[in-house]
Amino acid sequence: MQVLEDLEAKGLAELAQATDEALLRLWHGNWLGRTGHVPAALKRVAEIPPQERKAYGQTANRVKETLTGAYEKALEREREAVLDRELQAPPLDPTLPGRNAPRGGLHPSTQTLRRILRVFGDLGYQAYRSREVEDDETNFGLLNMPPHHPARDMWDTFHTTTPGLLLRTHTSPGQIHVMRERAPAPIRVVLPGMCHRYEQITARSEIMFHQVEGLCVGEGITLADLKGTLEVFIRRMFGDSRQMRIRSSYFPFTEPSIEVDMDCMLCGGAGCAVCKHSGWVEILGAGMVHPTVLRNGGYDPARFSGFAFGMGPERITMLLSGIDDIRYFWGNDLRFLGQF
Ligand code: FA5
Description:
Blueprint: H1 2-17, H2 21-31, H3 37-43, H4 50-88, H5 108-122, E1 126-127, E2 133-135, H6 136-139, E3 165-167, H7 173-182, E4 187-196, E5 208-218, H8 223-238, E6 244-251, E7 254-263, E8 280-289, H9 291-296, E9 305-311, H10 313-321, H11 334-337
Parallel strand pairs: 1-4
Antiparallel strand pairs: 2-3, 4-5, 5-9, 6-7, 7-8, 8-9
Helix pairs in contact: 1-4, 2-4, 3-4, 5-10
The site of adenosine-5'-[phenylalaninyl-phosphate] has 24 residues, from strand 5, strand 8, strand 9 and helix 10.
């Protein structure tokens, strides 16, 4: 009996030390839990001589009730105290502005791509997605560059481990895919997409960049149509007062080939670092589709003619936004991307 009395006194004393809910629960485990002191005392009833068993059992049960009651009261008191503290704390002001969830945006290249596609969309061009992994034949051969043609050196190439398969170096092979799909119907498409070149990365050149190709094939298409189309594009894209200039150039898949410059929109033609002090910046390469390429696409060059052009949206974004290094585009630096 004395052991039970002592147990009760010790239990109450320890309970008084438990000053928060976690400690109270710990106490409950130690004293009233399945392996706690009180159930252990109740189990000892079997060891008590039969004549004393009843009295022992009654006392043990009373100790259990006392400790259980004391625990529940202590828990209740503790919860009320917590609530009191919360109520006395400075009140929550629901009229304060909330925290903004940061909002994502489109990558600057995507924004420019979409602007380009919209201008050509208004001119009746469809967007056509060609493939990014090409075969050598379509990237070069069918574009009038048979194996060992020196012009292949204009495009330093990433080859895959499968012979004859490569990452396209430009969007021009898409011309072949569209023509073979549509011949002999007239074509007006733009082909956007990623290109890859095994080049030195510099402020102006990446190994991975977008191009937008344009292709128009039909009867009676002339260089004047190409010039008019590009003039509309440049004014819609860069502003009505832009001047354009055409230089003769060379691409194996166009004849004649041209390069198109625009007066530098950063210095207005006075000369700056971006235009290398010439007052002009290069915007794209273009030309009349070579008869061999037309034939490879399934069009009879005696009846059909066409023009094609290819431009780089990253370079165009650099001009539009005054960006002096192309490496920012894939650098994933939010200080750069967040400005768009
Ligand atoms: C071509 O790739 C031709 N296929 C373009 C063409 C199409 C000509 C149809 C005639 C008819 P070029 O290598 O110049 O041409 O690339 C075209 C544009 O892609 C460049 O003006 C430039 O804006 C962009 N570009 C080329 N190389 C890079 C590079 N390393 N990094 C970023 N942009 C590039």
